[in-house]
Design a protein that fits this description.
Cytidine Deaminase, domain 2, four-stranded mixed sheet, alpha/beta
């Protein structure tokens, strides 16, 4: 993938004046996480606008394009140009003619429809697409998961500054951090992580931790890379549990530094 010019993006954190309830008269400065419209434009045609943090945008463009099925591989992305405008940010993504033709066909089918709710989905089967997965003998030690949870909390720099962001991270099988991405949007944080992961070597024994609840889309997205463990700080949805069970993914929720709950394929966890 070649890169076009990059125009400097906006700040992820700004300062705002605030007053604490304990001392309303005294003014303080607070770090505030920025949220901005991010438009994904493919071969000159606008596809979708997402609200997110203005950082790691190339990773976001790559991760979103792959997991949403807009491109088949990273090699289908020829260039990414990031343009910062007054009203938001444009990600101009140049993709292969074959992928763009498929994208245009989907857009034609969506014309005139309302209440879609799922970006680019024209049918139930498309929204609930099941990635092909391979069998795995991976196992994960509980002590390494707990180690990763501790590291995960410590490495969320934007969250520590603002208290307003989500994070997704990939850890090795011994609980060492490999990649972390943050965003005000939980799905965007995961897409950024996936985009970054596609440029690095990810092992089958690696696993993902997300700071949010575990939705079915998150299970769906990590299945594309044949990863077998998703750990969520909050609860999973029922659909996420069923999809994880079908895709041979171990799904953990309510994960804290000393405990967690396993919802599928518990045989993969070693105490």
């Amino acid at each position: 993938m070649t890169r076009s010019k990059f125009i400097q993006t906006k700040k992820t954190v700004t300062l705002a004046k605030a007053h604490k309830s304990s001392s309303i008269k005294d003014e303080v400065q607070e770090n505030i996480a920025e949220e901005t419209p991010i438009a994904l434009i493919y071969n000159g045609i606008s596809h979708v606008v997402m609200m997110g943090s203005p950082s790691d945008l190339e990773d976001f463009a790559v991760g979103f394009s792959v997991t949403e099925g807009i491109v088949n591989n990273v090699s289908d992305i020829y260039s990414i140009e990031i343009n910062c405008k007054d009203e938001g940010i444009e990600l101009n993504v140049e993709i292969s003619s074959e992928c763009f033709a498929n994208l245009k066909a989907v857009r034609r089918n969506l014309t005139g429809r309302t209440g879609c709710g799922l970006c680019g989905a024209e049918s139930l089967s498309q929204a609930m697409r099941i990635p092909k997965v391979e069998a795995s003998n991976s196992h994960f030690h509980s002590k390494h998961i707990l180690k990763a949870l501790k590291n995960f909390s410590n490495d969320q720099k934007l969250q520590k500054k603002t208290g307003a962001t989500h994070a997704s991270a990939i850890f090795s099988d011994i609980g060492d951090l490999k990649i972390i991405r943050e965003d005000v949007g939980r799905h965007i944080a995961l897409d950024k992580l996936i985009g970054a992961s596609l440029k690095n070597k990810i092992c089958e024994s690696d696993f993902v931790i997300t700071s949010s609840r575990a939705s079915y889309e998150m299970v769906q997205k990590i299945a594309y890379f044949n990863l077998k463990l998703l750990v969520a700080i909050s609860a999973p949805t029922g659909l996420a549990i069923r999809m994880a069970d079908n895709l041979d993914i171990t799904l953990i929720g309510f994960a804290r530094e000393a405990r967690y709950t396993i919802y599928s394929h518990n045989q993969r966890i070693i105490e």
